[in-house]
């Protein structure tokens, strides 16, 4: 194996996973987690927080956690101080399949790395088209907690339909032990799944982004 090839592999963190750790050679597999955090703080807060009993979520703009991908050693060490981590959710887009698949890979790879470092990781499922949501389920555990964000789901009819369709899909295919809902519960049908509701927090404004 050439040094250039090894360097390229490390640049996308493919060295974090063995082929046997990936499903269909596409996405890393995530182990189940049924830990329920007492409260959640955002990734924007964790660098300035000592509330280590809290879980950390990533329901903020991607710009605030891109550095986790480019500087994982520091950030994974920091995230492992907290009680659990909601798996990062780099943005996905209904009309941009390839960038969305790349972001799903990045989200999953960081989640896998955190688990390998001993941290509890609660899987997240982003909702989009039927095909994209199904792709996002590859390698996720059944009978585990999953986390979804309902932020913005009520704004438009299409958003409501997409969110409800996503809940339908994870209920049918993952059969989760419960659903952590970040945002508003609203009147969505959770198919009698146990839900754990965490209200959207006030945006944190440090001197500069994490």
Question: Describe it for me?
Answer:
With 210 residues, the protein is of the alpha/beta class. Helix content is 34%, strand content 14%. It is built from seven helices and nine strands; from the N terminus they run H-E-E-E-H-E-H-H-E-H-E-H-E-H-E-E. It has helices at residues 3-11, 43-46, 66-70, 72-79, 97-116, 130-137, 157-173; strands at 22-23, 27-28, 40-42, 55-57, 84-86, 121-122, 145-149, 178-182, 195-198. The strands form three sheets. A four-stranded parallel sheet has the order 3-4-5-6. Strands 7-8-9 form a three-stranded parallel sheet, with no helix packed on it. Helix 6 runs parallel beside helix 7 (157-173). The longest helix is centred in the middle third of the chain and has 20 residues, at 97-116. The protein is globular.
Output the keywords.
210 residues; alpha/beta; 3-stranded parallel sheet; globular; disordered C terminus
Task: Summarize it.
With 210 residues, this protein is of the alpha/beta class.
Rg (C-alpha, Å) = 17 Å
**Beta-strand content:** 5-15%
Q: Order of SSEs, N→C?
A: HEEEHEHHEHEHEHEE
N-to-C terminal Cα separation, in Å? 36 Å
Helix content: 25-40%
Give the tally of β-strands. Answer: 9
Topology record:
Elements: H1 3-11, E1 22-23, E2 27-28, E3 40-42, H2 43-46, E4 55-57, H3 66-70, H4 72-79, E5 84-86, H5 97-116, E6 121-122, H6 130-137, E7 145-149, H7 157-173, E8 178-182, E9 195-198
Parallel strand pairs: 3-4, 4-5, 5-6, 7-8, 8-9
Antiparallel strand pairs: 1-2
């Amino acid at each position: 194996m050439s040094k250039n090839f090894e360097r390229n592999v490390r640049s996308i963190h493919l060295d974090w996973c063995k082929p046997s750790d990936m499903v269909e050679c596409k996405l890393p597999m995530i182990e189940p987690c049924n830990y329920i955090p007492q409260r959640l703080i955002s990734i924007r807060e964790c660098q300035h927080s000592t509330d280590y009993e809290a879980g950390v979520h990533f329901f903020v703009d991607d710009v605030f956690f891109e550095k986790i991908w480019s500087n994982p050693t520091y950030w994974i060490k920091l995230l492992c101080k907290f009680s659990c981590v909601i798996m990062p959710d780099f943005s996905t887009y209904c009309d941009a399949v390839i960038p969305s698949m790349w972001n799903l890979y990045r989200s999953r790879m960081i989640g896998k790395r955190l688990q390998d470092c001993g941290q509890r990781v609660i899987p997240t499922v982003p909702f989009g088209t039927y095909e994209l949501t199904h792709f996002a389920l590859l390698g996720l555990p059944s009978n585990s907690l999953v986390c979804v964000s309902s932020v913005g789901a009520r704004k438009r009819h299409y958003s409501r339909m997409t969110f409800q369709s996503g809940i339908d899909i994870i209920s049918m295919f993952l059969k989760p032990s419960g659903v952590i809902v970040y945002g508003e519960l609203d009147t969505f049908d959770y198919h009698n799944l146990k839900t754990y509701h965490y209200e959207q927090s006030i945006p944190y404004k440090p001197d500069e982004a994490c």
